[in-house]
Amino acid sequence: MKSFIGTGVALITPFKEDLSVDVQALENLVENQIASGVDYLVVLGTTAESASLDKKEKQLVIDTVVKQNNKRLPLVLGLGGNNTRVVCDELESGDFSGFEAILSVSPFYNKPTQEGIYQHFKAVAAASPLPLILYNVPGRTASNMLPETINRIARDFDNIIGVKEAAGDMVQAMRLISLVPKDFLVISGDDMLTLPMTLAGGKGVISVIAQGIPAEFSKMVSLGLEGKPAKAYELHYKMQRSIDLIFAEGNPAGIKALLAQKGSIKNHLRLPLVKATLGLQQQIEDFLKNFK
């Protein structure tokens, strides 16, 4: 579990102009994250536009990241859904070579009860060959995994080792941290709340903005984990504007605009997502010019 303390980065999927996967850009992106000191990488999460990738493309992304990473950083694979049987089948039949854990989102759209969420992850835990990190993101799933439910899951299933908590609610995050076992990883899924959650007892972040400014964001998280809030908050406030900007028109439109401004990728997304407006792109460009 120590592999997932610190800064994890939810990788985008770069596209060429014809909207095919840009393998070279993805390789360069992985290399940049490693060189900049992040702690682990998350493949095929929401930020990767995984909902609009087909099976062959997902495998291409996996193969590219695993090969480029070459066992240097721990890798986490996003694999979840709202059909429990299908998720379990994928876990039982998949080849997860190169990965150390699975990030599995709480069932979306169906709006299960807390008991339904518990039973879903009970089945997923039984099927998974790798440790699991839960993903609570009510803004996308339309249902909130309550701290009491996560605590129940944490205590009942040994191979569920943590949660990416992205409810955007600091009170809920503190209640969660206070309830779960001490070795259960509470990982921020909200870039703006990363530092306060870490200082409250969380174990870091699975971040979007860290993909664009990895060295600085990783340093902030490290300072938080070391119990150095003053220095950590200096970095937080320095980066705060960028977090507002990259989420202003949704994810990953913002982070792709930022990475395109840095010359790392071409700014292409797949429908139904569209690129950031010119006004937002200009604001992101202005931020980067002044960021030192």
Percent of residues in β-strands = 5-15%
Tell me the number of strands. Answer: 8
Write the CATH homologous superfamily.
Aldolase class I
Main-sheet strand order equals: 7-6-5-4-3-2-1-8
CATH topology: TIM Barrel
Question: What about the largest sheet?
Answer: 8 strands, parallel
What is the approximate shape?
Answer: globular
Number of domains: 1
- CATH-derived architecture: Alpha-Beta Barrel
Separation of the first and last Cα atoms? 33 Å
Averaged pLDDT: 97
Order of helices and strands: EHEHEHEHEHHEHEHEHHHH
Q: pLDDT under 50 segments (min length 5)? A: none
Structural class: alpha/beta
User: How many individual helices?
Assistant: 12
What is the helix fraction of residues, given as a range?
40-55%
Describe the structure.
The protein has an eight-stranded parallel β-sheet. It has twelve helices and eight strands. By secondary structure, it is α/β, with parallel strands linked by helices. The radius of gyration is 18 Å and the shape is globular. Helix 3 (84-93) links the parallel strand 3 and strand 4. It has one domain: Alpha-Beta Barrel (TIM Barrel), CATH 3.20.20.70. It has helices at 23-35, 55-69, 84-93, 114-127, 138-141, 147-156, 170-179, 194-199, 214-225, 229-247, 253-261, 278-290; strands at residues 6-10, 40-43, 75-78, 101-105, 132-136, 160-165, 185-188, 204-207. Homotetramer; dimer of dimers. Its EC number is 4.3.3.7. Belongs to the DapA family. It catalyses: L-aspartate 4-semialdehyde + pyruvate = (2S,4S)-4-hydroxy-2,3,4,5-tetrahydrodipicolinate + H2O + H(+). This is 4-hydroxy-tetrahydrodipicolinate synthase.
